[in-house]
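Below is how a single chain appears once it has passed through the pipeline. First comes the sequence as given, then the structure the pipeline wrote out for it. We keep one example in the README because the format questions we get most often are answered faster by looking than by reading.
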Amino acid sequence: PTKESYSFLEIYNSNLVPLLVKRTWNAENNSLLFSEISTSTRFRSIKVHEVINLISESEETQFSAVTFELSNNHYFLSFRGTTATFVGWKEDLNMSYLTIIPSQKSAADYLERIHDKFGGKYYLGGHSKGGTLAVFAAVFTKREINENIIKVFNHDGPGIHSSLRSRNRIQKIVPEASVVGIMLEEERDFSIIKSSAWSILQHDPYTWLINEDKFLRTPSTTRFSNYTQRTISSWVSAIDEETKRNSLASLYEITKS
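Resulting structure:
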């Protein structure tokens, strides 16, 4: 019979790991990481709850999330970033002119549903767009839920619309040559870490450098990253919303064709 939750170790022993990582960005490393997590004393008993995966081309939304039960009534809500789909990238582009995109609303709804079901205390996090969703959900949830959020982790995710900004318990990190994480980010309230990759390839978290249990820090982003941040911010602020909407819609249709 199907259970409501499974531990990492149970999933690992089910021999489903190759299927779970089959069409992910880096299947080989993801499989190795999952194996290490599932057999470690620290992580193997963590339970996986409420997996959700929504893709709608008509609504231009791609949303996926999962809840990890840690211990002592504490949970980590993890939001997935952009997948290799046209609709996923189109939704990212929509952030340049929409105050709220559909997956952000889905993230806030998901947090509320999980809190109503389990109660407890929460960490939220994600990589790329997933980090942006975690921030949005934390900022735009009910006050009583927000008070139960311990920390929010945004790993190289774009900023959110300037009218929505809040830095409450948010820890953001970007690699030194960040392109994605500094998009729509007018401020520089983030930590910068070293990467073994070059340019846009630094968005891959497998390239982020660590020493024992800490990221290797660096004081500033590269000149290329700084230039990209200034350029995108200038474009977003200089062009009216309708022009951005039409330009991106045309680009999207050309790319799909």
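The longest strand covers residues 47-56.

See the next section for the split statistics.
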